[in-house]
Amino acid sequence: MTAFIAANFSYDGIISSEYGLRITSDDSTSSAGANVQLYTQKIYRRPKTYLLGIEQTPVLSIPIRINVPDQLSATEDSVISKWLFGRQNYKKLQIIQSDMEYVYFNCIFMDKQTERIGNIIRGYYANIVCDSPFAWTYPKTKTYSYPSGYLINDNIQIVNSSDMDDYTYPSMSFTMNVFGGDLSIINTSDSNREFLFEGLSANETITIDNDLEIITSSVSGVNRLSNFTDYKWMRYKPGINNLQLSGNISSISFTNQFAKKMS
Rounded to two decimals, what is the model's pTM? Predict the structure, then answer.
């Protein structure tokens, strides 16, 4: 279960110390989100149950307390409530303590209860409900440049440190060289699965969201899905991924973000 004690935090880009607030998790009842739901099929007169698939569930939900050393005025309560509660979309929450500075929760604050002593507001009880069973590392982009040559060949290694026992799909972009042509990436760690574009223009830049399966070209009005052979989107298996690059590119970049189980 996720634990943080009297820590500063940042939510939607605003740091809690501006209001003197600190956050503490109530780890006695939190849902760590590190579970799966099984989809199975039982066949008549067969003792074995067949696993059809799994779903990562439930989403991460953490009861928390937010308080101040002294008290909050009615005006401060109004401003803080507008900032934290009743938001209409997930926002980034970062807990500012040494072992959690590399991750954030994509979450919404819910179920606000105001903590009062007499008529004095001392803080709030609430739940943070996330968009998934995981916290997320901040995106990091690694770029490889090839300033000269008609055809490049390179071998690179990417470590998928995700705590999710499934494939991770990165965002990426690459720029063709002055000749144009093809790009092949073979993941030898994933049964030689090949990511392949063919027939691209000189100096064209292709941007890809492999998770959402979106391809964007710098050439106006061009749909490059037809140039994407077999629609094998770029993915990483858990652990080490050895990639063989070949083609007519001047640069390529991978933007990686990994799911983490915070416990």
Answer: 0.82
